[in-house]
UniProtKB/TrEMBL annotation, chains A, B:
Cofactor entry: Mg(2+); Ca(2+)
One Pfam family matching this protein: FAA_hydrolase_N
UniProt domain Fumarylacetoacetase N-terminal: residue ranges: 18-122
Residue ranges occupied by any Fumarylacetoacetase-like C-terminal domain in the UniProt entry: 131-412
SUPFAM superfamilies linked: FAH (SSF56529), Fumarylacetoacetate hydrolase, FAH, N-terminal domain (SSF63433)
Protein family: Belongs to the FAH family.
Taxonomic classification: Eukaryota, Viridiplantae, Streptophyta, Embryophyta, Tracheophyta
Name assigned to this protein: Fumarylacetoacetase
Catalytic activity: 4-fumarylacetoacetate + H2O = acetoacetate + fumarate + H(+)
Entry keyword set: Calcium, Hydrolase, Magnesium, Metal-binding, Phenylalanine catabolism, Tyrosine catabolism
Uppermost EC category: hydrolase
Pathway: Amino-acid degradation; L-phenylalanine degradation; acetoacetate and fumarate from L-phenylalanine: step 6/6
Organism encoding this protein: Salix suchowensis
Annotated EC: 3.7.1.2
Amino acid sequence: MALKSFIEVSPDSHFPIQNLPFGIFKPEPASPPRPGVAIGDYVLDLSTISVSGIFDGPFLSGSDCFLQPNLNKFLALGRPAWKEARAKLQNLLSADEATLRDNPSLREKSLVPMSKVEMLLPIAIGDYTDFFSSMHHARNCGIMFRGPENAINPNWFQLPIAYHGRSSSIVVSGTEIIRPRGQGHPSGNSPPYFGPSRKLDFELEMAAVVGPGNELGKPVDVNEAGDHIFGLVLMNDWSARDIQAWEYVPLGPFLGKSFGTTISPWIVTLDALEPFACNSPKQDPQPLPYLAEKTSKNYDISLEVQIKPAGQEDSCVVTRSNFNHLYWTVTQQLAHHTINGCNLRPGDLLGTGTISGPEPESYGCLLELTWNGQKSLSLKGATRKFLEDGDEVIISGCSKGDGYNVGFGTCTGKILPSL
Amino acid sequence: MALKSFIEVSPDSHFPIQNLPFGIFKPEPASPPRPGVAIGDYVLDLSTISVSGIFDGPFLSGSDCFLQPNLNKFLALGRPAWKEARAKLQNLLSADEATLRDNPSLREKSLVPMSKVEMLLPIAIGDYTDFFSSMHHARNCGIMFRGPENAINPNWFQLPIAYHGRSSSIVVSGTEIIRPRGQGHPSGNSPPYFGPSRKLDFELEMAAVVGPGNELGKPVDVNEAGDHIFGLVLMNDWSARDIQAWEYVPLGPFLGKSFGTTISPWIVTLDALEPFACNSPKQDPQPLPYLAEKTSKNYDISLEVQIKPAGQEDSCVVTRSNFNHLYWTVTQQLAHHTINGCNLRPGDLLGTGTISGPEPESYGCLLELTWNGQKSLSLKGATRKFLEDGDEVIISGCSKGDGYNVGFGTCTGKILPSL
């Protein structure tokens, strides 16, 4: 029989006892931020639980990692500590365990209704890297910008292509995004366009949250890379396609991306996702030995993007994709990132790149869905080629188990007009 | 008559009382890191000076910004505080002022011989951005890789091109650099090369250290951008040209750069550099209004790179350049960086890109100096196309005043073999 909590959790909740994602929250506007895990419609305050002495195992006993304003210190402890925390929490919340269930005062102090809390960025992000690991996305962009003959560059099949992103402008779900201003291609001999972006887009991504990390000069072996990934978040890598197209040769994306990147507040652990592990696509050509994994794993996570157009009550699904469309696994991404000696630190973020599937209904951004604005999307009453001011984008992600979900909640953002 | 210190400073020192660059040091291996300024052959310990109550002005009185392990808190205070600190310190160290000069106990506690201290990274770097602002460098790279007709892309003259770099692998001068491993272009139908980089290079750069910064969504006006730059450091943006060439299309440099970036320990303030301000090159076409400065300033800073080849006692000068060769000013870079709303934080680093001058003797990297390995550099007994294991690269920079220098010291690093 499936594990059950003494807290009532609706069958369609993303946050049953099988999940227990970690985040940072404030129970009241004036309270200091602290770690929590989601359980049904509640957040369990880990600072309270920690002070009550429940984490008495070898890795967490005496640690102040749950008395911090972010999860970095916990992430630095590594997988044995993560597993210990998960086991303690699953036990503490289970229907059979009296410690919390039968202690009204501790319940009162430690369980906060999710509707009352403010969620914050779960981690202090030192460096953020964005990969480009969906073949369908790479091919579609290539066809649009270079034609079908050379759609995907030969290097793409040999290494997980990536660029460094901007850490400072990563925000938590719900933060409004101001439409960026910038330069676009000149037409003829006139100076470049300057003004609010005319091609504002979302990108459906997920991102891996890095655990202990490695020393400068010491690469992580691809078969140990899993121990350096705490979990995954949903990510919207907002993109201004006109700014990006004009600036990106030869050094890559810069201001077309750095105005904002949104992540979900809850980090779902790889341990919670393990039941949803699946094979990754066959790689041809075979990767070089440093990228060859004994077991090459993806996860079956259904992803969906809805747009709620400005002024409308209802949102429309614009795409459905899945994490398992990634060609390069997150462990290959991490091993590649360190092969030159580059050091990763706890809290670093590795974005997957836009996750597009093979079918037009599964493309992960408007650039692909409207083929760079050549056709319109129909959203009930409204039509869109790119995002308009007031539009809200809602990403959700969920793995469906037998009678329960392991979900990510949502990752949302609304576009405000340029200043 | 020029301002003089009671501390004897040799006329060729980089650190007279006119300079007073800021850094972070440890007086003893076991001491906690603390801020200091360089004066002649000494480091003045700002934690000691601060505790003694000398910073009694409106901006610094009561502040613990000099009791921190990095300069970020001081940088966050902004130019009025920076000017107040500089004025206090210039007064405290001047020949006419008795406070420190005639207090042997305070002198003993606060002045540490530079030869005895360990210098650390002066700042906690949230984000590091690298620009591409020398036209000579852009043209040379363009000729090598795209031919002379399209050497410089049209966007280059309209905006300061840049990419996000890797923060975690920025190290202080003197840190050894392990030769990175990685993939290089396949030849014919064989798989890509994998192994230690065969084209390891230095890049002669400088970098601006960002002061207070801006809120997400609120760009900095180009005419106020100077107030967001605390000062400059020397920088060596080590580059593996073979890794870079294979990976960089279409998303820009990644592992070809992220294995290490070295900066000098001393940040020379823009206030100390003000006497060396000079006009920047005329820009044609005229920049768009958001990049048009009332006063467009460069600085006359002589730059030099020496290589000390493995096994040799002597180093050889391989290039001489000048900061004033930059086409885009650091204030234009900063304003451009924020025009889309991107937020900068105290301690962020804005690299200039390789600073090449117009003459072959002033090119800022081996890629240009040896024309991608087509010719060799002669270094007394040795010859080099790219860096070999055991080679040390020494960058220095200095502005020459009337009877004094405002210098940066050196930025050095030695290549260790791949693991």
